[in-house]
Design a protein that fits this description.
By secondary structure, the chain is α+β, with helices and mostly antiparallel strands. Among the domains are: about 100 residues, no CATH class; about 80 residues. Strands 2, 3, 4, 5, 6 and 7 form a six-stranded antiparallel β-sheet that branches. A hairpin with a 7-residue loop joins strand 20 and strand 21.
Length: about 625
C-alpha cells in the first residue's frame, strides 16, 4: 500500500547535388594545400541576399581517367560547394554532416579565413543558422563575422559591456590574458539574442579576442575552444574567468555539457607562446559530476567524478579527484580511488538485485522498504520498481493485482517514455490467449531498452524452486511445463558430468540452459552461452566501412597519414573485400591532403566511376576537372 501511494504521487543517398561547372585551374602548390591567403575584410550583415540555385548532378565521367586532373580550386567555388551541402543538410543526416566537416577542413587548409567575400560569408552563415540544430560547426564563420560586427559597432574592450547586433547578443568581458599592453576580452556570443531557454539557442560561444586600435581579431588557438550546440556538445557555460594557476595572468574555464553524459568537462584555457591553449595535461579530461571545492585563491580543485553503474535503475558511482597546477599543466593527484555507489533509491534497488530470484513476497517487501525515502529525483527507479512489482504479482499467480497495477501505471506514464513502452507491451501480451509469466517477461525484456524483466532470472528461480528430475527425459519435462523446446544436445568436458544443453524459445528469442546431474534425484540448471555449433558465424563483410577512429583522426587532429595507415590495416585484415564509398573518399581525400596528387586523382576518379550518384561519388567528381 505504501508503494502505491508513493508511486501515485511521483508518477501522477538521396542523390547529392554538388559542384558548379565553373572554370578552374590545376593546383600549383604541392605538397599540401595553399596557406598564404590574406586575412578577410570586415563584413556587413546584408539582407535579402540572392540565393544561388542548387547545382545539377555531376554526371558519370565523360572521358578516360588520364583526361582528368585534380581540380584547381578557387575560394568562391569551394565555398559554394560547402554552402550547397549545408543547405541540403537534413535532420539526422550524419553522412552529409561528415561531408560538411570534410569540406570545412579542406576550406581551412586551402584558404585560411575563408570565406572572405562578405556576401558569401553572409550566405554561409545564414545557411548554417537555418540548418538542423547542432549539426554544423559554425565557429569558423561566426567568429570572424562577429569580429567584423565589433569593428562596425565601435565596441571597446576596455570595459564590461553588452550589446545586440544582427540578432547576436554579445557580452564583452575584458581580462588580462597575455600580460601585455594589448586589450583582450572573452566575448560571449549568443544567437538568437531573444532566446530564453537553452533549447532555443542556435549558437553559444566564448570567443577569445583582441583589440588593436580599432581592429578586432580572433586570437590564435581559438579553434580549440568549443562552441555549442555541436555534435555531442549540448551546452557550454563559463565556469571561471581569472587567475586559476597563480601565474599572475588570467585564464578562462568552460564547463562543457555532453548530450546524455553524467559529467561535465572542465576545459581550462590560457595564453602560452603566441596563442590560446589548453592547460589540462594532454590525454586527460577533468570530468565533473559535482564540484566539491575550488578556492578563488589557489590552483587546486576537487571534484566528484560520476560513472553509470546501473542504467536500468539510474544508479551512479562516484569518486573524488583532485586536480592541481603542476609543471605547466593541471594534473590529477594521486591515483583516484574506486568508484562507490551513491546513496540513492536507484542504487539501493540495484544492490538488491536479482529481485526475480527472490521469493515474491520477500522481493515486494524489499522494494517497498527501499523506496520509502524516494524523492521526485528518483522517478526512473520508481517507475522500474512499479513494473517489477507488477511482474512479481504475475509470477505469484495474482494476475488481477498485476493488471490493476499496470492500469494505474498507464494513467501516469508519459507518452514515449520507458514506462509507457513497458506498460503497452504488458497489456498487449497479457490480452493474448495462453499467456504465461515467462511470455510476459520475454515481451517486456525486449519491448524497450533495459526492459524490466530478465527471462534467465525468472528461469533460475523456477528451476531452483522446482528442479527437473533425473528419472525423466529433460525435453519431456520441459514440454510438460509448457516450454517451447528447440534443440537438445549433450555437452561433454573432461572432469565434468555430461550436461544436457537445451534451447528454450520465448517470444522468438533463444535462451540456452544446461542441466547437470550433480545430485542424486534432480538436475542443477544454469544459463549458458549457445554451444559452439549453434553460435552464429560472423558474416564476411560485403564492403569495409571506415574504422571508428578514422573520422576523428582526420576531422579533429588532421592526420591523413594515420588515416591511410588505418585503412591499409583494415584491407590487410580483410583481403579481397573492397572499401565502401565513404572509406574510399577518406582515402582519396587523405592522399589529397598529403599532396600525393596522382594517387588522389586516381582514387577520386575510380570512386566517381563506380558510385556516381552517391554523396561520396559526387564529392569525388567535384575534385576533378576535364583537361
Amino acid at each position: 500500500m505504501r508503494f502505491r501511494y508513493l508511486f501515485g504521487w511521483l508518477c501522477l543517398v538521396a542523390m547529392l547535388l554538388l559542384a558548379t561547372a565553373m572554370p578552374i585551374a590545376a593546383q600549383q602548390n604541392p605538397p599540401g594545400f595553399a596557406t598564404n591567403t590574406p586575412p578577410p575584410p570586415p563584413l556587413a550583415f546584408a539582407t535579402n541576399t540572392p540565393q544561388p540555385l542548387l547545382s545539377p548532378v555531376i554526371a558519370v565521367p565523360s572521358a578516360p581517367q588520364e583526361r582528368y586532373a585534380l581540380r584547381r580550386w578557387d575560394e568562391a567555388a569551394l565555398v559554394n560547394v560547402l554552402l550547397e551541402q549545408v543547405r541540403r543538410l537534413g535532420a539526422g543526416e550524419s553522412e552529409r554532416g561528415r561531408v560538411i566537416r570534410l569540406l570545412q577542413l579542406e576550406l581551412a587548409e586551402r584558404f585560411p579565413n575563408a570565406p572572405r567575400r562578405p556576401e558569401q560569408r553572409e550566405q554561409l552563415l545564414q545557411a548554417m543558422l537555418a540548418a538542423p540544430r547542432g549539426m554544423v560547426d559554425m565557429r569558423g564563420v561566426v567568429r570572424p563575422f562577429i569580429a567584423g560586427l565589433l569593428n562596425e559597432a565601435g565596441a571597446s574592450f576596455e570595459v564590461f559591456n553588452t550589446l545586440t547586433v544582427a540578432d547576436f547578443s554579445l557580452t564583452i568581458m575584458p581580462f588580462r590574458l597575455a600580460g601585455t599592453e594589448t586589450r583582450d576580452a572573452l566575448v560571449h556570443i549568443r544567437y538568437p539574442a531573444s532566446a530564453t531557454t537553452a533549447g532555443a539557442v542556435l549558437y553559444d560561444d566564448y570567443m577569445p579576442a583582441r583589440q588593436q586600435g580599432t581592429t578586432f581579431t580572433v586570437l590564435n588557438g581559438a579553434a580549440g575552444v568549443p562552441a555549442a550546440p555541436f555534435n555531442t556538445i549540448g551546452q557550454i557555460n563559463l565556469e571561471r574567468l581569472g587567475d586559476v594557476d597563480d601565474d599572475g595572468l588570467e585564464e578562462f574555464v568552460l564547463a562543457v555539457d555532453y548530450v546524455g553524459g553524467v559529467n561535465r568537462e572542465y576545459r581550462i584555457f590560457g595564453w602560452r607562446g603566441e596563442g590560446i591553449t589548453s592547460l589540462v595535461l594532454p590525454g586527460q579530461t577533468i570530468q565533473v559530476g559535482e564540484l566539491v571545492e575550488w578556492p578563488r585563491e589557489g590552483s587546486r580543485l576537487t571534484v566528484l567524478e560520476y560513472r553509470i553503474e546501473s542504467p536500468e535503475w539510474g544508479c551512479l558511482g562516484e569518486r573524488s579527484v583532485t586536480w592541481a597546477w603542476t609543471f605547466n599543466f593541471f594534473r590529477p593527484g594521486a591515483e583516484p580511488g574506486e568508484f562507490r555507489l551513491q546513496d540513492s533509491t536507484g542504487c539501493r534497488l540495484y544492490q538488491a538485485e536479482p529481485l526475480f530470484e527472490l521469493p515474491v513476497e520477500d522481493a515486494i517487501s524489499t522494494i517497498e522498504e527501499l523506496i520509502q525515502t524516494a524523492t521526485v529525483d528518483d522517478r526512473a527507479a520508481i517507475d522500474r520498481a512499479a513494473m517489477t512489482v507488477a511482474l512479481l504479482r504475475v509470477l505469484e499467480g495474482r494476475a488481477d493485482l498485476a493488471l490493476g497495477q499496470v492500469e494505474r501505471l498507464a494513467g501516469t506514464a508519459e507518452p514515449g517514455s520507458w514506462l509507457a513502452g513497458q506498460v503497452a507491451a504488458f497489456q498487449e501480451v497479457a490480452a493474448q490467449p495462453n499467456t504465461t509469466p515467462l511470455t510476459i517477461c520475454a515481451a517486456l525484456q525486449h519491448a524497450t531498452l533495459y526492459g524490466v524483466c530478465e527471462v534467465d532470472e525468472v528461469l533460475a528461480r523456477q528451476f531452483t524452486e522446482d528442479p527437473l528430475r533425473r528419472d525423466l527425459p529433460v525435453r519431456d519435462q520441459l514440454e510438460m511445463r509448457g516450454f517451447i523446446v528447440g534443440d537438445v544436445v549433450t555437452l561433454s568436458a573432461v572432469g565434468q558430468f555430461d550436461r544436457q544443453a537445451v534451447r528454450l524459445i520465448f517470444d522468438g528469442y533463444d535462451y540456452w540452459w544446461a542441466f547437470a546431474p550433480l545430485s542424486r534425484e534432480t538436475y542443477t540448471a544454469e544459463s549458458i552461452d549457445p554451444p559452439s555449433s549453434f553460435q552464429p558465424v560472423a558474416e564476411r563483410p560485403v564492403k569495409l566501412m571506415p574504422p571508428p577512429g578514422a573520422w576523428p583522426m582526420l576531422l579533429d587532429t588532421n592526420a591523413p597519414g594515420s588515416v591511410l595507415g588505418q585503412l591499409d590495416n583494415l584491407m590487410q585484415e580483410n583481403p579481397g573485400v573492397p572499401l565502401d564509398s565513404s572509406a574510399r573518399f577518406l582515402q582519396a581525400f587523405s592522399y589529397d591532403l598529403m599532396g600525393t596528387r596522382d594517387d588522389a586523382r586516381q582514387a577520386y576518379f575510380t570512386l566517381w566511376s563506380d558510385d556516381p550518384t552517391s554523396i561520396w561519388g559526387q564529392l569525388a567528381a567535384a575534385h576533378l576537372e576535364l583537361r
